[in-house]
From TrEMBL:
This is tRNA pseudouridine synthase. InterPro entries: PsdUridine_synth_cat_dom_sf, PsdUridine_synth_TruA, PsdUridine_synth_TruA_a/b_dom, PsdUridine_synth_TruA_C, TruA/RsuA/RluB/E/F_N. Keywords: Isomerase, tRNA processing. It comes from the Eukaryota. The active site is at D62 (nucleophile). One of its GO terms (molecular function) is RNA binding. Coiled coil: none annotated. Pfam families: PseudoU_synth_1. Residues 15-118, 164-281 form the Pseudouridine synthase I TruA alpha/beta domain.
Amino acid sequence: MGPGSVRARYLVYFQYLGTDFNGVAAVRGVQRAVGVQNYLEEAAERLNSVVPVKFTISSRTDAGVHALSNAAHLDIQRRSDRPPFSPEVLTEALNTHLKHPAIRVLQAFRVPSHFHARHAAISRTYLYRLATGCPRPDRLPVFERNRCWALQADCLDVAAMQEAAQHFLGTHDFSAFQSAGSPAASPVRTVRQASVSPDPTSPFILPEESRRLQFWSLEFESQSFLYKQVRRMTAVLVAVGLGALMPAQVKAILDSRDPLGKHQSRVAPAHGLFLKSVLYEGLGGPGVCP
Protein backbone atom coordinates (compact mmCIF):
# COMPACT_ATOMS: atom_id res chain seq x y z
CA MET A 1 0.00 0.00 0.00
CA GLY A 2 1.40 3.40 -0.99
CA PRO A 3 2.06 6.14 1.58
CA GLY A 4 -0.90 8.38 2.26
CA SER A 5 -3.43 5.98 0.78
CA VAL A 6 -6.18 3.77 2.22
CA ARG A 7 -7.06 0.39 0.74
CA ALA A 8 -10.53 -1.13 0.89
CA ARG A 9 -11.52 -4.58 -0.38
CA TYR A 10 -14.94 -5.21 -1.89
CA LEU A 11 -16.92 -8.23 -3.05
CA VAL A 12 -18.99 -7.41 -6.12
CA TYR A 13 -21.69 -9.47 -7.82
CA PHE A 14 -22.19 -9.02 -11.54
CA GLN A 15 -24.10 -10.63 -14.39
CA TYR A 16 -23.56 -10.91 -18.12
CA LEU A 17 -24.74 -12.46 -21.35
CA GLY A 18 -21.69 -14.38 -22.50
CA THR A 19 -22.41 -14.38 -26.23
CA ASP A 20 -20.00 -11.56 -27.09
CA PHE A 21 -17.18 -12.57 -24.76
CA ASN A 22 -14.26 -14.95 -24.82
CA GLY A 23 -15.20 -16.04 -21.31
CA VAL A 24 -15.22 -14.08 -18.08
CA ALA A 25 -11.44 -13.95 -17.64
CA ALA A 26 -9.51 -10.98 -18.98
CA VAL A 27 -7.66 -11.29 -22.27
CA ARG A 28 -4.25 -9.72 -21.76
CA GLY A 29 -1.87 -8.37 -24.38
CA VAL A 30 -2.51 -6.64 -27.67
CA GLN A 31 -5.94 -8.17 -28.32
CA ARG A 32 -9.00 -6.01 -27.89
CA ALA A 33 -10.89 -6.49 -24.63
CA VAL A 34 -13.06 -9.55 -25.11
CA GLY A 35 -13.26 -10.91 -21.56
CA VAL A 36 -15.92 -9.69 -19.12
CA GLN A 37 -13.09 -8.93 -16.69
CA ASN A 38 -11.51 -6.55 -19.22
CA TYR A 39 -14.62 -4.38 -19.25
CA LEU A 40 -14.97 -4.46 -15.46
CA GLU A 41 -11.37 -3.36 -15.01
CA GLU A 42 -11.72 -0.67 -17.67
CA ALA A 43 -14.68 0.71 -15.73
CA ALA A 44 -12.65 0.57 -12.50
CA GLU A 45 -9.92 2.71 -14.09
CA ARG A 46 -12.31 5.65 -13.76
CA LEU A 47 -12.39 5.28 -9.97
CA ASN A 48 -8.98 6.99 -9.60
CA SER A 49 -7.47 4.28 -7.43
CA VAL A 50 -3.84 4.93 -6.43
CA VAL A 51 -2.93 1.51 -7.87
CA PRO A 52 -4.67 -0.26 -10.79
CA VAL A 53 -7.76 -2.24 -9.80
CA LYS A 54 -7.73 -5.96 -10.58
CA PHE A 55 -10.81 -8.16 -10.28
CA THR A 56 -10.22 -11.63 -8.81
CA ILE A 57 -13.04 -13.70 -10.29
CA SER A 58 -14.83 -16.30 -8.19
CA SER A 59 -15.90 -18.62 -11.00
CA ARG A 60 -14.34 -18.91 -14.44
CA THR A 61 -16.83 -19.29 -17.31
CA ASP A 62 -15.98 -20.16 -20.91
CA ALA A 63 -16.76 -18.29 -24.11
CA GLY A 64 -20.51 -18.09 -24.65
CA VAL A 65 -21.46 -19.06 -21.07
CA HIS A 66 -23.72 -16.62 -19.21
CA ALA A 67 -23.97 -15.61 -15.56
CA LEU A 68 -27.05 -14.59 -13.63
CA SER A 69 -24.70 -13.82 -10.75
CA ASN A 70 -20.91 -14.22 -10.69
CA ALA A 71 -18.66 -12.63 -8.07
CA ALA A 72 -15.22 -11.09 -7.69
CA HIS A 73 -13.18 -9.23 -5.12
CA LEU A 74 -11.19 -6.08 -5.80
CA ASP A 75 -9.05 -3.61 -3.88
CA ILE A 76 -9.39 0.15 -4.26
CA GLN A 77 -6.75 2.47 -2.81
CA ARG A 78 -7.82 6.08 -2.44
CA ARG A 79 -5.69 8.99 -1.26
CA SER A 80 -5.69 9.51 2.50
CA ASP A 81 -7.94 12.55 2.16
CA ARG A 82 -10.63 10.47 0.40
CA PRO A 83 -12.82 8.04 2.37
CA PRO A 84 -13.47 4.57 0.93
CA PHE A 85 -16.37 4.27 -1.49
CA SER A 86 -19.60 3.06 0.01
CA PRO A 87 -20.78 -0.21 -1.60
CA GLU A 88 -23.74 1.62 -3.14
CA VAL A 89 -21.55 4.33 -4.69
CA LEU A 90 -19.12 1.72 -6.02
CA THR A 91 -21.95 -0.25 -7.67
CA GLU A 92 -23.34 2.87 -9.32
CA ALA A 93 -19.91 4.09 -10.45
CA LEU A 94 -18.95 0.80 -12.05
CA ASN A 95 -22.26 0.57 -13.91
CA THR A 96 -21.90 4.17 -15.08
CA HIS A 97 -18.49 3.50 -16.60
CA LEU A 98 -19.14 0.02 -18.03
CA LYS A 99 -18.83 0.15 -21.80
CA HIS A 100 -20.64 -3.07 -22.68
CA PRO A 101 -24.46 -3.32 -22.34
CA ALA A 102 -24.34 -7.08 -21.69
CA ILE A 103 -22.65 -6.61 -18.29
CA ARG A 104 -24.22 -5.24 -15.12
CA VAL A 105 -22.88 -4.94 -11.58
CA LEU A 106 -25.58 -6.11 -9.17
CA GLN A 107 -24.30 -5.30 -5.72
CA ALA A 108 -21.14 -4.68 -3.70
CA PHE A 109 -20.04 -5.34 -0.10
CA ARG A 110 -17.05 -4.29 2.00
CA VAL A 111 -15.13 -7.41 3.06
CA PRO A 112 -11.98 -8.03 5.15
CA SER A 113 -8.61 -7.57 3.46
CA HIS A 114 -7.96 -11.34 3.59
CA PHE A 115 -11.26 -12.26 1.86
CA HIS A 116 -10.84 -14.21 -1.40
CA ALA A 117 -13.78 -14.48 -3.80
CA ARG A 118 -12.76 -17.85 -5.22
CA HIS A 119 -11.52 -19.64 -2.09
CA ALA A 120 -14.27 -18.36 0.26
CA ALA A 121 -17.20 -19.55 -1.88
CA ILE A 122 -19.14 -22.31 -0.16
CA SER A 123 -21.42 -23.15 -3.09
CA ARG A 124 -21.85 -22.60 -6.80
CA THR A 125 -25.01 -23.42 -8.76
CA TYR A 126 -25.20 -23.77 -12.54
CA LEU A 127 -28.35 -23.81 -14.64
CA TYR A 128 -28.49 -25.44 -18.07
CA ARG A 129 -31.48 -24.73 -20.33
CA LEU A 130 -32.76 -27.13 -23.01
CA ALA A 131 -35.48 -26.74 -25.63
CA THR A 132 -37.27 -29.59 -27.41
CA GLY A 133 -39.54 -29.47 -30.44
CA CYS A 134 -37.25 -27.27 -32.52
CA PRO A 135 -36.52 -28.93 -35.89
CA ARG A 136 -33.73 -26.47 -36.76
CA PRO A 137 -31.77 -23.91 -34.73
CA ASP A 138 -33.14 -21.09 -36.88
CA ARG A 139 -36.68 -22.07 -35.82
CA LEU A 140 -35.93 -21.03 -32.25
CA PRO A 141 -37.42 -17.64 -31.31
CA VAL A 142 -34.79 -14.94 -31.69
CA PHE A 143 -35.12 -13.99 -28.02
CA GLU A 144 -34.11 -17.52 -26.97
CA ARG A 145 -31.16 -17.92 -29.33
CA ASN A 146 -27.83 -18.33 -27.56
CA ARG A 147 -29.73 -18.87 -24.31
CA CYS A 148 -30.56 -22.59 -24.57
CA TRP A 149 -29.58 -25.79 -26.38
CA ALA A 150 -32.26 -26.43 -29.01
CA LEU A 151 -32.66 -30.18 -29.47
CA GLN A 152 -34.29 -31.53 -32.63
CA ALA A 153 -36.14 -34.14 -30.60
CA ASP A 154 -39.82 -33.58 -29.87
CA CYS A 155 -39.55 -34.93 -26.34
CA LEU A 156 -37.17 -36.23 -23.67
CA ASP A 157 -37.48 -39.13 -21.24
CA VAL A 158 -37.26 -36.81 -18.25
CA ALA A 159 -37.91 -39.59 -15.72
CA ALA A 160 -34.87 -41.46 -17.02
CA MET A 161 -32.80 -38.27 -16.90
CA GLN A 162 -33.87 -37.66 -13.29
CA GLU A 163 -32.93 -41.23 -12.39
CA ALA A 164 -29.54 -40.87 -14.08
CA ALA A 165 -28.86 -37.52 -12.39
CA GLN A 166 -29.04 -39.20 -8.98
CA HIS A 167 -25.76 -40.98 -9.75
CA PHE A 168 -23.98 -37.62 -9.67
CA LEU A 169 -25.07 -36.82 -6.13
CA GLY A 170 -22.53 -37.17 -3.34
CA THR A 171 -18.74 -37.26 -3.34
CA HIS A 172 -17.13 -38.94 -6.36
CA ASP A 173 -14.06 -38.92 -8.55
CA PHE A 174 -15.41 -37.01 -11.58
CA SER A 175 -12.41 -37.70 -13.84
CA ALA A 176 -14.77 -39.09 -16.49
CA PHE A 177 -16.45 -35.67 -16.73
CA GLN A 178 -13.33 -33.53 -16.72
CA SER A 179 -12.02 -31.89 -19.89
CA ALA A 180 -8.33 -31.57 -20.65
CA GLY A 181 -6.76 -28.39 -19.34
CA SER A 182 -8.34 -28.49 -15.88
CA PRO A 183 -6.11 -26.82 -13.29
CA ALA A 184 -7.71 -28.80 -10.43
CA ALA A 185 -5.33 -30.71 -8.17
CA SER A 186 -7.97 -33.37 -7.46
CA PRO A 187 -10.90 -34.68 -9.56
CA VAL A 188 -12.97 -35.41 -6.44
CA ARG A 189 -16.03 -33.21 -6.04
CA THR A 190 -19.21 -33.30 -3.94
CA VAL A 191 -22.39 -32.62 -5.92
CA ARG A 192 -25.27 -31.55 -3.68
CA GLN A 193 -27.92 -31.02 -6.35
CA ALA A 194 -28.46 -32.55 -9.80
CA SER A 195 -32.01 -31.99 -11.02
CA VAL A 196 -34.03 -32.03 -14.23
CA SER A 197 -37.34 -30.20 -14.41
CA PRO A 198 -39.70 -28.60 -16.93
CA ASP A 199 -39.51 -24.82 -17.33
CA PRO A 200 -42.60 -22.67 -17.50
CA THR A 201 -43.42 -21.63 -21.03
CA SER A 202 -40.98 -19.00 -22.19
CA PRO A 203 -42.54 -15.50 -22.27
CA PHE A 204 -40.62 -14.87 -25.49
CA ILE A 205 -42.47 -17.31 -27.76
CA LEU A 206 -45.74 -16.90 -29.61
CA PRO A 207 -48.79 -18.92 -28.52
CA GLU A 208 -48.74 -21.03 -31.69
CA GLU A 209 -45.09 -21.93 -31.03
CA SER A 210 -45.72 -22.87 -27.41
CA ARG A 211 -47.59 -25.96 -28.57
CA ARG A 212 -44.42 -27.51 -30.01
CA LEU A 213 -41.62 -25.91 -27.98
CA GLN A 214 -40.89 -27.13 -24.45
CA PHE A 215 -38.13 -25.82 -22.20
CA TRP A 216 -36.26 -27.76 -19.53
CA SER A 217 -33.87 -26.80 -16.74
CA LEU A 218 -30.97 -28.81 -15.37
CA GLU A 219 -29.40 -27.53 -12.13
CA PHE A 220 -26.16 -28.61 -10.50
CA GLU A 221 -24.78 -27.38 -7.20
CA SER A 222 -21.37 -27.99 -5.60
CA GLN A 223 -18.70 -26.01 -3.84
CA SER A 224 -16.70 -26.20 -7.07
CA PHE A 225 -16.68 -28.01 -10.40
CA LEU A 226 -14.03 -29.38 -12.72
CA TYR A 227 -13.34 -27.80 -16.12
CA LYS A 228 -16.45 -28.31 -18.31
CA GLN A 229 -17.86 -30.81 -15.80
CA VAL A 230 -21.37 -29.35 -15.91
CA ARG A 231 -21.51 -29.32 -19.71
CA ARG A 232 -20.27 -32.90 -19.91
CA MET A 233 -22.74 -34.11 -17.28
CA THR A 234 -25.48 -32.29 -19.20
CA ALA A 235 -24.51 -33.96 -22.48
CA VAL A 236 -24.68 -37.41 -20.89
CA LEU A 237 -28.08 -36.67 -19.32
CA VAL A 238 -29.38 -35.49 -22.69
CA ALA A 239 -28.14 -38.77 -24.21
CA VAL A 240 -30.20 -40.57 -21.57
CA GLY A 241 -33.22 -38.41 -22.36
CA LEU A 242 -32.91 -39.26 -26.05
CA GLY A 243 -32.62 -42.99 -25.35
CA ALA A 244 -28.97 -43.32 -26.41
CA LEU A 245 -27.94 -44.27 -22.86
CA MET A 246 -29.62 -46.05 -19.98
CA PRO A 247 -29.54 -44.44 -16.51
CA ALA A 248 -27.39 -47.29 -15.15
CA GLN A 249 -24.76 -46.56 -17.79
CA VAL A 250 -24.19 -43.12 -16.26
CA LYS A 251 -22.95 -44.76 -13.07
CA ALA A 252 -20.66 -47.01 -15.14
CA ILE A 253 -19.25 -43.93 -16.91
CA LEU A 254 -18.68 -42.19 -13.57
CA ASP A 255 -17.01 -45.27 -12.08
CA SER A 256 -14.75 -45.67 -15.14
CA ARG A 257 -12.92 -42.39 -14.33
CA ASP A 258 -12.10 -42.33 -18.05
CA PRO A 259 -12.53 -38.88 -19.68
CA LEU A 260 -11.87 -40.32 -23.15
CA GLY A 261 -14.67 -42.86 -23.35
CA LYS A 262 -17.23 -42.98 -26.17
CA HIS A 263 -19.93 -41.00 -24.37
CA GLN A 264 -17.63 -38.74 -22.34
CA SER A 265 -16.44 -36.93 -25.46
CA ARG A 266 -19.79 -35.12 -25.71
CA VAL A 267 -19.88 -31.57 -24.37
CA ALA A 268 -23.11 -29.56 -24.27
CA PRO A 269 -22.92 -26.20 -26.09
CA ALA A 270 -21.73 -23.27 -24.02
CA HIS A 271 -24.68 -21.02 -24.86
CA GLY A 272 -27.18 -23.04 -22.78
CA LEU A 273 -25.19 -22.67 -19.56
CA PHE A 274 -25.71 -20.05 -16.86
CA LEU A 275 -23.80 -19.57 -13.63
CA LYS A 276 -26.83 -19.04 -11.40
CA SER A 277 -25.30 -18.14 -8.04
CA VAL A 278 -22.18 -18.10 -5.88
CA LEU A 279 -22.77 -18.38 -2.13
CA TYR A 280 -20.69 -17.05 0.77
CA GLU A 281 -21.15 -17.66 4.48
CA GLY A 282 -22.44 -14.66 6.37
CA LEU A 283 -22.91 -12.32 3.41
CA GLY A 284 -26.12 -11.03 1.85
CA GLY A 285 -26.55 -10.26 -1.81
CA PRO A 286 -27.83 -11.87 -5.02
CA GLY A 287 -28.24 -15.58 -4.35
CA VAL A 288 -26.09 -15.43 -1.22
CA CYS A 289 -26.52 -17.00 2.21
CA PRO A 290 -27.62 -14.58 4.98
